[in-house]
Amino acid sequence: MSERSVRRRADARSFERGQAYFKAGRVRRLTVAGTTVTSIVDGTSVYRVRLEITSTGLDGRCSCPYGAEGVFCKHCVATALAWLEEGGEVGEPRPQPVTDERLREFLLGKDPTWLVEQLLAVARADPLLRARLDVAAGADVHDAYDDRALRERLEGAIEIGYFVEYGEAYSYFQGVGEALDAVAELVDAGFPDVAVTLAEYALGLLEEAADRVDDSDGGLREAIGRAEEIHLDACSAGEPDPVSLAERLVERALASDYEVFLTALPDYELVLGPAGMARYRELVEQAWNDLPPKKRNDYSTRRFVVTYLMEQLAECSGGADALIEVLARDVSSGYDVLRIAERLCADGRDDEALDWLGRGMAEFPPDSRLRSLAADCHLRAGRRAEAGELLWANFADHPVLENYIALHNAMAEQFPAWRDRAVATLREEPAASARFTPVPYARPAGRSVLVEVLLWEGDAQAAWQAAVDGGCRDELWLRVARERAATHPADAIPVLLAAADQAIGHKNRNSYKTAAGLLTEAGVLFARCDRPDDFRSHLAALRDAHRPKRALREELDRADLP
User: Which branch of life, at top level (predicted)?
Assistant: First the structure.
């Protein structure tokens, strides 16, 4: 092993940054055990590194996001360089451990007093083992385990006095997960009631810390979900007081800003039993009755949580009718009507759903979702004409490909008449002549939807003509030009060249790479048209016009363009 072999193992950027970390003294607690090297590296967070020296080279793992995926990251580089500075020595590979059977034979032959002393020594360092032994010796299971150390571990993992940035969040949540795993061990070890208490404590800590950690990757929701999962497992394995549990579940759900215990039902129904469910119902219905009358489009957090809890409760106890009764109390928008109708449709009650949908379409602003669901009901009943009128209204309000396809799929053999009407509507859209300007999309879309429709129908010729006559969005110009290239390559060439010019105008490495790809496509078409000299002339002029752009020249060279 040498610095050169470490350099080969990592990419250039990781080696450079890892070398800087090593020189800055960020590697500590370097330990060599056999052919394994471990360390702690101080970066944007504290990372644990493990290197394995094998006959084929150096393998590395790190607790950072890249290292966890098997990448030989900068922290692995720093550790490897620190190890090399200390001589790069390794010990003998660790011998194979003693087998369970051999160890069993050994222990069976030892004096009981010696065994007891060994077990007590281990138990002094392992509170969980000590508690299990205490219970076996007659202690009350509810008092045997001292949870203070685990509480402190949860506090140390979750509580933070500063904002955890995105780069540190992965490591932070990994530490939280390890602490929660220790709580989960209590369930299988016979201390589920302690696990219930600690899971609720962890949930409180997570909510308090929530606004001080970057949750872009969803780590907070995952941690809360893990704590909730442990809580349910512990409640199922233990004997919590059902009334007290119901009170805590409702109280936490109503107070939480992070949906803690919001979806407790139906999972906790068996754990709560009749007494717990009665108390749960009493508390939720009280909160429900205390809500003021709903105003139109009132979707406050409090109302959402209380309503959701009430909906779950109704679904558990009374099915669809009970749920609809809850939903019907506060109908103040088309969305409220939609939820009722969807539940009725799920139970095959289309006629009742249509009654609600008719009310929603009459009382509230136009809503394509209500029309679409009503159209589905009519189609199931064989009323194709009624469905067509509803789906046409959606298309007329929003003439987009999705609504065109919905009309096509519903109308079957009756579609041609609807198609003529739809295409005529799309041809009336204002034309847009410009294409591939330096600022894309900063102009009318022209006949873009018509072009999309014709491409979806497989009529490339008509799509091309629609684009030429009325213009379309840039990405559609590329699609239709590529389709056109199959039969008319000369027509597609100007589109590809214009798209390449637009990409170059963005002046960044990625756009230059895109431009090189477009020019490569254009080069193929020039060759098909027997115009290779024209392509070389275009590239020569382009290189001359953009001579100062070194990155562009590099991308053109990388693409083997003249």
Answer: Bacteria
